[in-house]
Amino acid sequence: MHRFYVSREQIKGNTIIINGRDVNHIRNVLRMKPGDGLVISDGQGKDYYCIIKCGCENEITAEICYTRDADYELTVRITLFQGLPKSDKMEMVIQKAVELGAYEIVPVMTARSVVRLSDEKKEEKKLLRWQAISESAAKQSGRGIIPGIHPVMSFKEAVDYAKKLDWAVIPYENAEGMKGTKELLEKIRECKTAGIIIGPEGGFEDYEVELARENGIPPISLGRRILRTETAGLALLSMLLLYLEE
After folding, report:
1. Which of 139, 152, 163, 174 is nearest to 212 (CA)?
2. What are the chain's domains?
């Protein structure tokens, strides 16, 4: 079934009101009609299996047939802290991280970040674009939630956020071999929240890795090869799926 997302305010008793750009998609792209079935998610882990009752140019009314908790989410809420990359790489990182199960994504300004979102209007426009990409990826991959995209954080702010999570690591090319990585990855099963801190092009400054270490966030290796910034986080998320998928 086709999946759509609504806010809790759009759910009224046994009916759900769909509005916005989804109306055009349902009516004119998918050409769905009254009686057709669809899945509507509240973006917070609950799915509503519905049939279309009626519609007009601006909204569509769907009747709830039954409800179930979404079972597509990982047992651990993973936050991806992504050092800001150049060009449109961030869009690809968000899309794929959402597909791989990330709970939320935090853009991070590090010492070697080339991109600088110093203009508030520019940053707000970027965040809206990134959140739309997250929603689209969540819809495509059948997620029960729409992962949130945070405003840009400094590296120190990211470390302060990550150290409060149950588990957090910082991939670093000078970290020791994969044995330590595997030992750390196994511990994630015991956690409810986790963080991955990824550097931008050019990697981290040594003092940034040391700051993370001082705050209980160990550096880990992702293998003998140096991965691009847009590859590293996705590689680690893929590794974690082996430990978290039932």
Report:
1. 163
2. 3-69 (2.40.240.20), 77-244 (3.40.1280.10)
